[in-house]
Every structure is written in structure tokens, then in C-alpha cells.
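Sample intake sheet
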Amino acid sequence: MGLLIAILALAAPARADEVRISGRADVIDGDTISIGPLKVRLYGIDAAEVGQTCKRAGGGTWDCATSAANRLQQLIGDEPVDCVALEQDVYGRIVATCRATGADLGRQLVAEGLAWAFVRYSDAYATEEATARTAAAGIWQSTSEPPWEYREARWDRAAERSPRPGCPIKGNVSVSNGERIYHTPWSANYERTVIDESKGERWFCDEAEAIAAGWRAARSR
């Protein structure tokens, strides 16, 4: 019932910062969780994309994307997550600050060097990032590509190869159940996904277009 009330509240003309969403959460990736049917993007942070790696201080790379997701799962454990919704993005996700066992999840990930402060949208965790950078923690032990640059680079390369110019998102139709799933250029299965337009599959120019057409994002975990 509480989740239903939260969903209704999001549709109501109340102030967004008064909307709370609480419940058991499943980790989708290092900066996104789901609570019931709601997908919640942690406010003010950006974690590595699935498949993205970060550089080690002594050379080589490590799976910073999986490390962030695993740490987020560890922080949540079996405890309920309490989120304060701030807005809903164009992809239908709720952008929120979330806590579990009293800890601000986004703040903790940035402080441990497992996520970047997403200063393009907020400087809420800029201090934590500066401290992690000074300590050479996690992603700051060497120079690693921020996820927004990683996404942009992969988008540009895929857009050049797309048969629909500038539209590299692949809208796949599942052979097993007919479900319509879209893959961004940074999705784990992007390269192995082949689009056959004769089967109703198609290319999209952005995620909002894919969602409006009835496709859902590929799951990252």
C-alpha cells in the first residue's frame, strides 16, 4: 500500500521533495535501484557503466562497474531503502536521494571512490569526491574515463555505423517471448545484438523515443 501511495503522489501536483519512496530494493547497477515497479536513479552521482573498466595505480584495469554495484548491494543488504524523490527524468526513472541503515547511498559510493560526483547536475557530493581523489581511493587511484565520457564516445562510434544516421540505439524483439528491448551503445549486449527490421526490430535516435515506442531498456544485471 505504501508503494502505491508513493506512485500516486508522484503523479500529484505536490512538491517533488515531499515525495518519499520506501521498500525493499533491487540493485540494477552502481547508481540505479528498483523499488517495486519504480526504477530509481541515485541523485548526484554517476557510476561506471556495465562493461566499463577503470585503471589501476600499478597498471592494468579493474571492474569498477561491478565493484560499485556490489558495494551498493552490500550497503543496502536486506534493509528497506528510504528515498526522497526529487524529479522524474525523461526515461521515466525517479531521481532521488536514498538511504539504507541511515547512510546516504550516493554519498557513500562517492566517498569510497566507487562513483563520480555528477557535477553536471549537482555538486551535492563534490566534497566527498575531492576527499576520495586526495586519498587515491577506488576510481581515483589512476586516471579513469568518467562514465559520461565513456557513453559519449561509444555513442559517437555507434552513430557513425548505424544504418539510420545518428540513431544507434538497437530496438530488439526477443525471440523467446516477443518482449521489446532496446540496447544503448554502452549496453553489455550491444555488439552481439543484430537488428532485423523485417521482424519489427528498429533503430532509435534516443532512449525517450524507444520508450515512447514501447521498448524497455536492457537489464544490466
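Comment: Residues 147-161 form the longest helix (15 residues). The mean pLDDT is 90.
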